[in-house]
Amino acid sequence: MILPKEQLFRFMRHIIMPEISGPGQKKLLESRGYITSHSIKNISLLLYYLAASGIGQLYVALEKPEDFSGLKANLLDLNPDLKIEFFNDFPTFPAEEKIDFAILADNFPELKGLEEVPKIITFTAPWYGYIRTTKEAGSLKIPLPEKENDSTQNSPGTIFSQCFAGVLAAIEAIKLCLNLGRHLEIPLYYNLFDMEFKTGEDVSVLESIVSEDPVKGKDLSNSRVLIVGSGGLGSPAAIALVLAGIKNLGLVDSDIVEISNLNRQILHSTSRIGMPKVESAEVFLKKINPEINIEKYLIRFTKENALEIIKDYDVIMDGVDNLPTRYLLNDACVLAGKPLAEAGVLRFEGIAMTILPGKGPCYRCVFPKMPPAGNIPSCSEAGVLGPVPGVMGILEAAEVVKLLTGCGRLLSGRLLIFDALELNFMTPEIKKNDECPVCGKDPSLKNLSGEYDFVCDIVENSNRKE
Ligand SMILES: [Zn+2]
Hints:
By secondary structure, the protein is of the alpha/beta class. It folds into two domains: about 30-205, 3-Layer(aba) Sandwich (Rossmann fold); about 225-460, 3-Layer(aba) Sandwich (Rossmann fold), CATH 3.40.50. About 30% of the residues lie in helices and about 20% in strands. The protein has 15 helices and 16 strands. The chain has an eight-stranded mixed beta sheet with strand order 3-2-1-4-5-6-7-8, covered by helices on one side. Helix 11 (about 325-335) links the parallel strand 12 and strand 13. Helix 4 (about 40-55) packs parallel to helix 5, helix 6 packs antiparallel against helix 8 (about 235-245) and helix 8 crosses helix 14 (about 385-405). The longest helix is centred in the middle third of the chain and has 23 residues, at about 155-180. The radius of gyration is 21 Å and the shape is globular. Zinc ion binds near residues 362, 365, 433 and 439.
């Protein structure tokens, strides 16, 4: 056997994908990464995803002394096999210490002994950022703007941008270790405020980067957000939303934490296996902010309770991975007039859209009918690369805050398609469909009766909340 039994279970969702499989996971477990940053906060989500994915050893160099004990304990609880060391300077590595990748997060020190190591470079500003992977040896000449003051340090846009860059960097690191897909040798620029993505050497995009965050100072403390599903999508979204200042959060999930969740569901941990996910999530989120109010729904989201649960929330977020519940959530939100941030993932891909009932297209406008149950691959059958739901969950969280504050351009009328192997984002336009069974001119679905039962029962056995 290539891996011990516990690691087989832990990384099952990776191993069942032929691109990774047992030997690939073994390679990840033997890999070493070096990360530099000006602060821990900037890279915490990155470290969670590297730990969850099974990267064997991490060296983390910080610009100034910081207390990393809490983060380190959380990372080791997520994956007890991780070896991690923190430094308050930039150590020189002996040549025999083989490092597989380096990640330079918002700082670019001279890395002695790492000239030949492939580097992932990120730069973040509120809502905006830049990421590039370079295998070039030698010095890094990167034309990036100077960071201004610290006034936007904890602003929602800064949080989302740093989380987003971190998860993308984790994907690039895994791809480097496995020699998988295409690397971002041409930089990617992202703009989460307007949900625009651009690759190219043209740095003029960066000129539009502002150091101010238009969302900073908007009061989010009374907003109520419901996340349906506390798994792969719900984990990063809940963390980012709490960091961004959301204080009232509802979490719906009937599952308990299992070891096979832990390659991606970073809200949970090894010591909390067997605990209901909503409770495990609360433990984690209250460490970030003890003041938050979490309403826990330890139940399945069904057509009987859907409208009752969503009615008290301002914005709803889809964190489920089974299609019947996704259709149910769409229909419930359209019928109740609740804005919905929606996303789904499979293997190396994700899609996302934001649904404004009555104003823009809904999920059924694009995908009118649920495919037959037997044709639906779920994450548990087809696998998913750990940080892929991380990317999609952060995008959803950013949409939630934009919905709440009325800022930026939403993914309404656009379908975001993410391909992690190519590290590519597309946002083709989608239109409201007059024939839509729930929001068209003559809708056939006027309530939630009937049609979710049959498919739900079949899929439920082999499907878990994502
Ligand atoms: Zn529709």
